[in-house]
Amino acid sequence: MTSPSAWTPSRDEWTELLDGQPRYRIDQVWHGLYDEGIHPTEVTTLPRKLREQLSDRLAPSLRPAITRSADDGSTVKWLWELGGDVAIETVLMHYEDRSTVCVSSQAGCAMRCGFCATGQGGYQRNLSVGEILEQVVRARTEAEPRRLSNIVFMGMGEPFANYNRVLEAIGRITSDLGIGARGITVSTIGLIPQIRRFTDEGLQVGLAVSLHAANDDKRSELIPINRQHPIAELVEVCRRHRRDTGRRVTYEWAMIDGVNDTDDDARELAAVARDTSAHVNLIPLNPTPGYPTVGSPVDRIRRFRRLLAEAGVNATVRANRGTDIDAACGQLRASTRADGDDGGRQPPVAVTLQPRTGDGGTPSGA
Ligand code: SAH
């Protein structure tokens, strides 16, 4: 059993943890964790003995094994080592006066979508609440003086396969970090019971669903879990989400050359999107080591988008960020180069990681 992350305990739990300490010590720890973004062992106003005790009981901060930047410094990717041969990635994207962080919810992913690098690498374990929160805290510090305004659960893993921890992390992001629910988006492959549960939470958090195909044959080929969670049911829970929360669902669609970018695909998608008053986000497929097909050409994407617009469906094309550092959608795989060199254009060497049991739980999560 590994020690918990310093960011996992709530304030009440920290009060218990520091039982016997004066109240201002809790304030000092809390201020360090959430205002300064530092680990309690680095809070110099705490007595050394207490810091040593905490160091024995808590996992250390996320260790950046590799930090890379791209797009003239406006995209930053971290590879964090969590110990026990587990590594995860976080991507920070800067815009003019604000930033968005893309966080991981699991080490690896059990969904096995062939076009996604994380899926190609398999599942390791769920992240804890603190491991999710620390990614946000570290990104917020790095983003300064820009404001970290948006958090997207679109990094490694399937957030709804780690449902309870992701929801707790969202609650803590809004309460302890003061980032509004409307600035947070969860992207799911489409786990139907969890989408229902999410709707019933009544949050203003955004919901994105990775659709990628609007008929079951094609979608099951791209996304194995579609066999258990077919489109008709998926569309039904999205409709319910829209109705009960008033919030528009976003369908994500990775544009794969010759696979899901035909006029028929556009028509099928338009029908589903209209039916659920959804917004569509088109993502040119990013290259991954284990998938032979490339992204759709620009004129195909344009035409596809125009067909959607003519059918009354609003679609945006997602700007590609970080492709040259494998930081773009679907490219996160906790990969590292054997020599640690950053210079290469070669495909990254995947680290061999052992599946683990322990505090992360099982992929079924929830
Ligand atoms: N598991 C969640 C969140 C992670 S992926 C989900 O599936 O939604 C975030 C988005 O990137 C998803 O829409 C995913 O389908 C997409 N994606 C995966 N691989 C990609 C690739 N190679 N190119 C472009 N987008 C990709």
Describe this structure in words.
By secondary structure, this protein is α/β, with parallel strands linked by helices. Helix content is 34%, strand content 19%. The chain contains eleven helices and twelve strands. The chain has helices spanning 11-17, 23-36, 48-57, 117-121, 129-143, 163-176, 192-201, 216-222, 231-245, 263-275, 298-310, and strands at residues 63-70, 75-83, 86-94, 98-102, 106-108, 123-126, 147-153, 184-188, 206-210, 250-255, 279-284, 315-317. The strands form two sheets. The chain has a ten-stranded mixed β-sheet with strand order 1-2-3-4-7-8-9-10-11-12, with helices on one face. A two-stranded antiparallel ribbon has the order 5-6. Helix 10 (263-275) crosses helix 11. The relative contact order is 0.14. S-adenosyl-L-homocysteine (SAH) is lined by residues 115-116, 154, 158, 187-189, 210, 252, 254, 283, 285-286, 288, 329-330.
Average pLDDT number: 90
Order of helices and strands: HHHEEEEEHEHEHEHEHHEHEHE
Lateral arrangement of strands in the main beta sheet: 1-2-3-4-7-8-9-10-11-12
The total of beta strands comes to 12
The major β-sheet equals:
10 strands, mixed
How far apart are the termini?
20 Å
Going by helix content, strand content and strand pairing, the class is: alpha/beta
Estimate percent helicity: 25-40%
Q: In angstroms, what is the radius of gyration? A: 21 Å
Proportion of β residues? 15-25%
- Shape field: elongated
How many individual helices? 11
What are the distinct ligands in this entry? Answer: S-adenosyl-L-homocysteine
- Low-pLDDT runs of 5+ residues are 337-366
